[in-house]
């Protein structure tokens, strides 16, 4: 083994290489690696958060849906109740109106009957008088029996 | 090629020599018999000339290939770093990020303190050592033969089979270990860690010896292990390459062996780079740790 100045030359070369590597090669690459590691970590965290948010949103949507369904059911129930009520009211009103009209009609009928009876009575009286007149024309003088005829008329 | 050499010993020696540039002293007799009148800067031919050049010479092939490979690594990683985004990564960025995550995990696993230097250091160590080791998988003759046609007498293309390279790396790491030991524990704290344990204080020479050996073992273990593994692997490739000069039966057998050894070596080169990086991290972690 011969040692010569190559030894020194190698040492100097080595120092220069290490310096260059430390100054210009190592930092940019390691920085890029770190930056990428951070990017990936951020991306994963973001995906995680997105998943959480999605779950939250879907749960919220489910809640909303359930609420809406309940509300709709309530509204429908109320509407049905109200419809039944309206029908009931209408029936009631119709029935009352019918009763009332019936009563009025009956009243009219009674009145008409009374009126007819009155008219009938007058006509019967007149008829009776006319009959009696015919019978009595020969025997009864209208002038003499006028007060009797009037009395009879009042009695009918 | 192996048949171009006088003996297989010659071939092996040739393949294990670096392209060394240095100054030969005056009066030195060169390999071709030429005697130098004045000190001359030149490429060494043969081990003797390398020896004569002494410390102030340089292995041009080791430097070129190691710097080239390191620059290649930094070029691609820098290109990826410039375009790095947190978005969907492209092919190159994907690969670079994969390497960086791997290094980052290793550092997090072994290093329990805060220091922005350690991870880039580990990345540089791993990729650089890996690329230098990777040159081992190129067939041993290709590049040196091409270089010899271009006029270079020697060429070793695997920088990590040059002890200068592995020790250069290990000593730099060792300097960091010493620096952080003193910085984190103070000079006194570092000294007491060396002198006052594991035995009681009055045995401090024994402690100093034990801990001193432990300390010195760090750069030695780093560099010699890498160097030894790669040198041995390269040596086997060279020995296998010798078979190509021994007729076609031996040649075919050598081809099969080289393929098998190369496949096995893929594991070794990666493992050695990984061990070098892990030990670097562990040593720096120990330098940061407060004892007791």
Protein architecture, described:
Chain A is built from two helices and no strands. The mean pLDDT of chain A is 90. Chain A has one domain. Chain A is mostly helical and 156 residues long. Chain B is mainly alpha-helical and 292 residues long. Chain B is built from nine helices and three strands, in the order H-E-E-H-E-H-H-H-H-H-H-H. In chain B, helix 1 packs across helix 8 and helix 7 packs antiparallel against helix 8. Chain B starts with 7 loop residues before the first helix and ends with a helix. The interface between A and B is large, with 33 and 51 residues.
Helical content class of chain A: over 70%
- Specify the number of helices of chain B: 9
Number of helices of chain A: 2
Q: Could you tell me the radius of gyration of chain B in angstroms?
A: 23 Å
How do the strands line up in the largest sheet of chain B? 2-1-3
List unreliable stretches of 5+ residues of chain A: none
Task: Considering residues with a beta carbon less than 8 A from a beta carbon on another chain, report the largest interface and each chain's count.
Answer: A-B, 33 and 51 residues
Largest sheet of chain A: none
CA radius of gyration of chain A is 62 Å
How far is the N terminus from the C terminus of chain A? Answer: 176 Å
Largest sheet of chain B: 3 strands, antiparallel
User: What share of residues are in beta strands of chain B?
Assistant: under 5%
Strand content of chain A: under 5%
Assembly level: heterodimer
Helix content of chain B: 55-70%
Order of helices and strands of chain A: HH
């Amino acid at each position: 083994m011969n040692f010569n100045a190559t030894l020194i030359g190698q040492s100097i070369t080595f120092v220069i290489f290490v310096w260059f590597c430390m100054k210009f090669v190592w930092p940019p690459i390691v920085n890029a690696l770190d930056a990428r590691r951070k990017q990936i970590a951020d991306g994963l965290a973001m995906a995680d958060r997105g998943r959480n948010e999605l779950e939250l949103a879907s749960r919220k949507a489910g809640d909303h849906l359930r609420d809406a369904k309940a509300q709709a059911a309530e509204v429908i129930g109320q509407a049905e109740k109200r419809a039944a009520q309206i029908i009931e009211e209408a029936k009631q009103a119709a029935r009352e109106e019918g009763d009332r009209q019936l009563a009025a009609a009956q009243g009219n009928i009674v009145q008409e009957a009374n009126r007819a009876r009155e008219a009938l009575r007058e006509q019967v009286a007149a008829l009776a008088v006319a009959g009696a007149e015919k019978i009595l024309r020969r025997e009864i003088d209208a002038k003499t029996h006028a007060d009797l005829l009037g009395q009879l008329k009042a009695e009918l | 090629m192996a048949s171009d050499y006088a003996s297989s010993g010659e071939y092996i020696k040739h393949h294990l020599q670096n392209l060394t540039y240095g100054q030969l002293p005056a009066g030195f007799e060169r390999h071709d018999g030429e005697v130098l009148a004045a000190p001359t800067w030149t490429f060494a031919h043969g081990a003797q000339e390398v020896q004569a050049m002494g410390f102030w010479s340089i292995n041009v092939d080791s430097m070129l290939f190691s710097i080239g490979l390191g620059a290649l690594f930094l070029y691609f990683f820098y290109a990826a770093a410039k375009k790095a985004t947190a978005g969907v990564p492209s092919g190159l960025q994907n690969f670079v990020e994969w390497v960086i995550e791997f290094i980052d995990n290793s550092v997090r696993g072994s290093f329990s303190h805060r220091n922005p230097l350690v991870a880039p250091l580990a990345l540089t160590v791993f990729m650089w050592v890996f690329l230098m080791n990777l040159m081992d998988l190129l067939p041993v003759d290709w590049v040196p033969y091409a270089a010899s046609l271009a006029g270079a007498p020697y060429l070793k293309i695997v920088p990590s089979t040059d002890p200068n390279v592995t020790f250069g790396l290990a000593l730099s790491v060792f300097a960091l270990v010493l620096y952080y030991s003193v910085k984190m524990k103070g000079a006194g704290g570092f000294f007491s860690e060396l002198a006052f344990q594991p035995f009681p204080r009055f045995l401090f020479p024994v402690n100093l010896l034990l801990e001193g050996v432990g300390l010195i073992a760090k750069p030695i273990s780093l560099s010699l292990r890498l160097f030894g593994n790669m040198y041995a692997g390269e040596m086997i490739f060279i020995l296998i390459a010798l078979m190509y000069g021994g007729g076609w039966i031996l040649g075919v057998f050598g081809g099969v062996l080289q393929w098998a050894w190369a496949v096995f070596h893929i594991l070794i080169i990666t493992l050695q780079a990984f061990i070098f990086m892990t030990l670097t991290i562990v040593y720096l972690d120990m330098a940061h740790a407060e004892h007791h």
